[in-house]
Amino acid sequence: MAEKRIKTNVGAIIPTINSVYESLSPAQKKIADFVLESPSEASELSVSELSKVTDSSDASIIRFCRYIGFDGLKDFKAGLGIEIAKLNFDDSILDTDIEPSDESSVVAMKLKSRLDNVISETINLLNFSELDKVAECMSQAKSVAAIGVGSSGITAAQVKHKFMRIGMNVDAFVDGHNMYMKAALMNQGDVLLGISHSGTTNELIKSFKIAKESGVTTVAITHNPRSALAKCADYVLINGNRQSQLQGDSIGTKIAQLFVVDLIYSVLVKTDMTDKMSKKSRTIKVVVK
């Protein structure tokens, strides 16, 4: 069975390469490294020239282009050229690593720039048709469960808090055994939402496989559309965050995940604003008393 091709949006080539980087073969990583380090030069080279500077074969270049959603190098270069022109690509803007000499005000501005970039990257990476379908599935589901481990478990808890307040039957799980039991008890039409930046969390992958046996709709929020979790999912929503050296899996990832959750919530609420706001008002009243 042929692997599903990634849909790369205009202006999202560099974020897409970053998101699938860990899934690339060694030969493809050499090509990706060159494109990420020298995007302007990469957009002007022929197949043979790009093969030479990356020590790759012509076939590897074509496979790389197809892997990230293009028919060949010509289409890839055209898209990359548009992206460079649109973003006025500048490494100094994208590099927000914190230096020992930075004052706290400089650190704050770098973090702000990082978060601005994360939101823009997430918007470019998202497939909004998939997002609309996820919102529709969740609105019709009798039961929704959000699962995540570690910091992604915090996002799962936020899903429960946010959607429960508008009257949905939703729960969150951060422990593997509880995830497995919940997945086994879900039914066709229910939605299991798995949150994992890497897409490699074993507990989530196993839970998806269990849930799919009962016809449960599975949704992955992940940075890697080629990950094992994404391959198990019915729908994949890609969050941004090209991690810097000192920040690692920190606030950028959390903001990206919460942004995707808020998008689902907003799309879902706008389809029935009166009912959802009425239920939210009722939950607010009992909380503030």
From TrEMBL:
One Pfam family linked to the record? SIS
Every copy of the SIS domain together lies at 134-274
How is this protein named in the record?
MurR/RpiR family transcriptional regulator
Q: Which organism is it from?
A: Vibrio sinensis
Q: What start and end residues bound the annotated signal peptide?
A: none
Q: Which CDD domains match?
A: SIS_RpiR
A single GO molecular-function term is: DNA-binding transcription factor activity
Keyword line: DNA-binding, Transcription, Transcription regulation
One Gene Ontology term from the biological process aspect of the record:
carbohydrate derivative metabolic process
Q: Say if the entry is tagged with keyword DNA-binding.
A: yes
Name the PANTHER family for this protein: GLUCOKINASE, TRANSCRIPTIONAL REGULATOR
